[in-house]
Each structure stands twice: as structure tokens, then as C-alpha cells.
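Archive record:
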Amino acid sequence: MISYAPFYNTLLKNGITEYQLIFKHGFSANILHRMKHGETITLRTLDTLCFILDCSVSDVICYVADDDKDSNLQT
């Protein structure tokens, strides 16, 4: 599964708040809501975040293996 934990660390490191993303950069509050709940985002959104935060993709998302998913694929 994809984790957005690096995103929140990057925000903290850069001193940027979600409020600033929404009101200064015009970022969608709905997308932030989706990220908080582990839902998918588009590559365009990922690109926008990397541009705003001046960071790489790995500073926004990371892959975390889901053991349950692997066992479901084998059945």
C-alpha cells in the first residue's frame, strides 16, 4: 500500500502547513482529506506537490508492503 507519511514529514521539515497549501498555493482541501485517509491521488497531484514543496516523489509517498494483500493473491 502507499503511505503518505513522508508527505507530513516534508511539510514539517519545510515549515509549511496544510492551511498554507490550501490558501497560498490553491491546493485542494479534498485531496488533503483523501491523503489523510490513505486514499489514492493522481500523478498530476503528486507532481504538483513535488513542485510546491520542491522535493522528490519519495518525500511525498512511500510503499509499505501489505502482507494480507500478498496472501489474497495466492488463493
